[in-house]
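WARN  no MSA supplied for this record, continuing single-sequence
INFO  ligand: zinc ion
INFO  echoing inputs
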Amino acid sequence: MAVYFSGRKKIGEVSVTLDSGRMRIDCAIYEKWIDIDSSTTARCGSPGICQVARTEGVSEKTSQTVEQSISASLGLDDILKLKATIKEVFGYEVNWSHSITTTKTFNFEAPMCGRYSLVIYQLLREYELTCSRQRFWTLRHDVWDKKWSRTIVEYTNTHDALPDVEEFDEICKSRPDCRDKATMPPFHDGILCFDMGKASFRVPYRLTSDGFDVQILKRVISFTFTDYPAGIRGLEQGLTISLPIQVMPEPLVFLSPPQNQEVEAKVFRYMDPDEDQARIPMDVLTGVTTLKGILTLAGQETR
Ligand SMILES: [Zn+2]
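INFO  complex generated
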């Protein structure tokens, strides 16, 4: 799941005992999304850029902390035991090694008379580690002395893109060349989240007579419901749709590369989990939605 939420969320905690039960590591794990792009806003057919860096694992400094200060009191086997416990409980691989950052710039163009910018988020995990040692010279066995605590920040390869679209830029109202443009019906039915596991994007959608449209950059992608009522229900509950990777915002393909040319996306109406009651996982409807077409919007004509 790569569904964006605001704020910091505790995903759980684990404890491992080491040194024949004389030492204990408590680890609380938190997740939060951070904005990682440096983007510009493009207006009315003009170009804009989105620059992102791909970083996985931990920073060089954190990596040294793990190696030196933590390993000094823990030993490699202890760290492996902690990582294995986290994997067992939460089902993912901990990555505390340092990786080299790669930066890439993407160019895009705003739709005619529209305004466009792209926000890219990366999922971060914070591990709050506390090491305690059992107190000696006491008859009680549950007295622990806190030895140290550290926070490790891990950059994951999970990303989310939020295109910020304004279908009609106010600036265009006063520009003579823009007035006569044929306007598309607006995207006002809400926001859909396309969740592909490691990558997700959120885009506005509008319902059509046989399905729905979404706009991703300069492309309008139309989907057809083979069963209309089921499709409408599916937008609330979740639908699985197979997508060609060309429709994914390009920076996401770079940051969280899909395995194949087609990706399976879980699609549902987006609500920030913090603002709303938690989404109850329901049966995802498969096969009621098919891709109908991809329309590339024209840029501004040369004046
Ligand atoms: Zn315009």
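The chain has one domain: 8-296.
INFO  checksum written, moving to next record
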